[in-house]
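tool_call predict_complex ligand=zinc ion
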Amino acid sequence: MATIAKVIVDVPTMQTDRPFDYLVPPRLDGALQVGMRVWVQFGKGDRKVSGMVVAIVNQSQYDGELKPLLDVLDPAPVLNQEMLALSKWLAKTTYSFWIACMQTMLPTMLKIDAVKVAEPLALSADEHTRYFGQADSVAMNTLTDEQQIALMKLAQAGKVAISYIKKDRARVKKVFYLIPQLSPEQAEEQRRQVRKNAVKQLELLSFMKTWSAEHQRPLLTEVEHRHHLTKAVINQAVEKGWLKLEAHETYRDPYPQLQHQPLTHPLPLTDEQQAVVKTINAAVKANEPKTFLLEGVTGSGKTEVYLQVIAQVLAAGQTALMLVPEIALTPQMVDRVKGRFGMRVAVMHSGLSDGEKYDEWRRIARGEAQVVVGARSAAFAPLKHIGVFIMDEEHETSYKQDSSPRYHARDVLLKRAQIHHAPVVLGSATPSLESRARAEKDVYTLLRLPHRINDQPLPPVHIVDMREGFAKGAQEDFSAPLLDALKLRLQRHEQSVLLLNRRGYSSFVMCRDCGYVAKCPNCDISLTLHMDTYTLKCHYCGHEEAIPRRCPQCGSDKIRYFGTGTQKVEAQLQKLLPDARILRMDVDTTRRKGGHARILNAFGAHQADILLGTQMIAKGLDFPDVTLVGVINADTALGLPDFRASEKTFQLLTQVSGRAGRADKPGEVFVQTFNPDHYAIQYAKRQDYEGFFRQEMAVRHQGNYPPYFFSTKIGVSHVDETQAAKAIFSLAKELRDRLSDQVMMLGPTPGPIARLKNRYIYQIVLKYKHEPALAKTLQHILEETQQSSRQGFQVTIDPEPLSFV
Ligand SMILES: Nc1ncnc2c1ncn2[C@@H]1O[C@H](COP(=O)(O)OP(=O)(O)OP(=O)(O)O)[C@@H](O)[C@H]1O
Ligand SMILES: [Zn+2]
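tool_result ok
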């Protein structure tokens, strides 16, 4: 009977969003498994594309002649059954192509159609010559079928590494061991024969005398380092038959500094922590896919709760998946989790190199790591037997991906929890309104930690009115009370954190004479000033240009910089407090790899008095000597036409306030604002989450906003503005015709940035309680666009968008 592989080809279109059948040639039969990537011929001619095997069957419904499958790319499946099922669910719920969803789950290195190469690890000389000749690696497509199969088998036995070369770099990292071929006596014998001036060889031989053939296999790098031996000396020894080199696959360790530290011990829990841990552990033991919302004030010890739940899960032989919002937050969190569980932890976030990500991913897939800490995409970590899912700072917007597939990591965890029969813990001091509302309806179970560790009070928050006439003694961006508080901290050798709220705010260049503002030629947005490179940049399309000396519009030389950039505030502050040591943390200072960790470590080691930064300093940081938090501009987000503006402002202020007074010294917070009476600011002053929740729910109810309604945003773009406008109006009509009356439609309106990358954008937002026809209608619209995409349209569908603008 024929073997047939059902393959999703990597050609994302509506027509190819289902499997195609391919005949599996006998040579690949047996090696082929579901979840492996393959090469197939697709369409007319001999176009070759990669694809994913989603099923292997004996019969095809297709009555034409089947094409043969050309090759298998992987020695083992890269997607397991759970991941395949999950990818299908993801495609359906985010209106994305199945293949795009599968790609999203894989590390970058497995996404590309790279050249497949084999490299020897532990081969006999014979085998080496047979497959590699004199070379160190071989491209698989240059070999015969039989040779390829043989190499795949050797790869499964760990004797050959198969990897994918992009830009000529091998992807599997190797280490070499030296295998002595001489007994100590033979080494001594050789020593006597070697010329006396061959100093390095003599040294190597006397070193070799101390090895015993079975027990000592030193690492090449170690020998080179310790004995100052060059590659050439080792190679000579190999040629003379004294030594053999044996390669082994190894992993890159993104956190080598944490490797040799002793593990930390669990802290004795407070009664409140104890109660929470007990409840979660009970659900873990009972395999209950319950969702807990852990609402714990800042500094209430949520992290210790997570760690002890994870410990319990590991003890039961299961694994744990923990998500954290973004890399800025991970250094301290990674330290804590790795500090407790050591090498059992794998880390996944965008700050790692492609190679590091690939290695961490393999350690997870192979079951060598049992705890995963990572950002959004780690929701797809291929852990097996997951006993608990944790999402820290669950209100963070970075958990939602803003490009296709537009998924929310929380939904992925809830879905996987059903599959693994394991609970989910969503933790935050300021839960999203959506989650808190679900807890209200008992969809989630609410757990609370209302007190800080050691019963430290939350720091008092002073609101500083910055409006004209109120702000006496203010110097530029700093009010008198905030400046005094900063000076006091300097005297006491305590530390301060200063937040510059940059949302909707950036530095730009303007002509004082004619008002000209430098704009991006491709997007309707002003260019942002970057003082480190002395250029203007577009944050949307990457366009970059020099700062003009004269105004391109009127020729005046009165070009000035505007806006409150972190660099500008840093300069102000340094002038006001010349003795203060200031560390700045923003996109510019953290661009380089490990930038966040470097700055935070320096601050932790008291190399600075003040940490000045954007939103990235607001959350998660735990520094005992920080006793002052200052917010320079609380309300930049409040002015935005966004129904989540109040929620975001409240969350930000509460989170950043929570950085003060976390240990034994009491803290204090100053919030500078132009809206001192706004309820978001007033509730943040009292750090009253529950109060804010009730008032904000009333506001949302009145405006028919989430969480009272579900929502979907639909956008259309085209290079021609009239075309885009026409398309959105016909789409609006189609939606009205197909959907029920209870669906509310906002728009059509131009996108918040009306032109992006030279495309004009129009959009519609739908709000609804329950709309059975929606999924089908949107699917239909997508299918139609596939046809109209030939005319240059792009349609995007964003389920539960972060904002309506
Ligand atoms: N049971 C405990 N005994 C003593 N110290 C504890 C205990 N639990 C936590 N801590 C310490 O209290 C501090 C605050 O805890 P943690 O950082 O976990 O709070 P959190 O709730 O995650 O705060 P945030 O939401 O502000 O990030 C940490 O330094 C932590 O080591
Ligand atoms: Zn641009």
